[in-house]
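Dear support,

I submitted the protein below through the web form. The confirmation email said the job was done, but the results page showed an empty box. After a refresh the structure appeared. I'm attaching both so you can tell me whether what I see now is the final result or a partial one.
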Amino acid sequence: MRDKWKAGKKEGYLKIYVAVNVKSKKILSIKVTDEHVHDSKPLPELVDSILKSDGMTTAIGKLFGDGAYDDNEIFRCLWRTMEYCHVLK
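What the results page shows now:
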């Protein structure tokens, strides 16, 4: 990965996770991590942030993610909050 993005030994890179309402194009939650955090780890925090936003009850209808999110821990996290979950492989 470092070679692909031409990151030197001392330089790292950041990962930005964004939850978006696809219909309204509104950003619902955002999280930034360093390169050492696995892609699926910030998802529970993003979901909690969305559900607690503005003190309102928000439903998450769909989640689209790549194979990094195809994990039992992720499905358990989302089980009660979602109608549909699809992992793109």
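Response: this is the final, complete result; the empty box was a page-load delay. The chain has one domain: 14-87.
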